[in-house]
Design goal:
This protein has helices at 4-33, 37-63, 83-111, 114-144, 150-171. The protein has one domain (4-168): Ferritin, CATH 1.20.1260.10. The longest helix is centred in the last third of the chain and has 31 residues, at 114-144. The chain is mostly helical. The protein is elongated. The protein has five helices and no strands.
């Protein structure tokens, strides 16, 4: 059974993951409109992944005899100054999610909730991977620079990362 504090924190995380999903969906749409198909595919995948993270939390809260709350999602930003600005926003979003997950983990220790602590370890590792991936994209954007063909090369690099992620997912055994 979840303590009130843990349930509240997990429901806040459900809201955060839901917003991240819609935010990445908005970003993907912007990329589509700007002709960056590779970036759009990557962000559509990220949107779906964040939704899956939200759903994991919903199921866990309900299975742990809590009440998962499905929040209204505020409207995400719709336009970006540049693809670099967009990926900077992705990175800040991932850092915010990491901080929130770390707070839940700390709360699990305080509340002596070992089951939720164990459940949250997947999120800890997932966030480490997410932040490293986005830092890598930002590094590539810096290396490519801002010349006239830069968007083409950034789009190709992000699409390459997306294809690697898809291949890795396909290779994973079903849980």
């Amino acid at each position: 059974m979840l303590s009130t504090k843990i349930e509240k924190a997990l429901n806040a995380q459900i809201a955060m993951e839901g917003y991240a999903s819609m935010n990445y969906l908005s970003m993907a749409s912007w990329c589509d409109q700007e002709g960056m198909e590779g970036c759009a595919r990557f962000l559509y995948r990220q949107s779906e992944e964040e939704r899956e993270h939200m759903m994991r939390l919903v199921h866990y809260v309900n299975e742990a005899d809590g009440k998962a709350l499905i929040p209204a999602i505020k409207k995400p930003q719709m336009t970006y100054k540049s693809v670099q600005a967009l990926f900077n926003a992705v990175y800040k979003s991932e850092q915010k999610v990491t901080a929130a997950i770390n707070e839940i983990v700390a709360l699990c220790y305080t509340e002596k909730d070992h089951a939720t602590l164990n459940f949250m370890q997947w999120y800890v590792e997932e966030q480490r991977e997410e932040e490293a991936m986005v830092r890598g994209i930002l590094d590539r954007i810096k290396l490519i620079g801002g010349g006239p063909q830069s968007l083409y090369y950034v789009d190709k690099e992000v699409d390459k990362i997306n294809k690697q992620l898809a291949a890795a997912e396909a290779a994973e055994p079903e849980a």
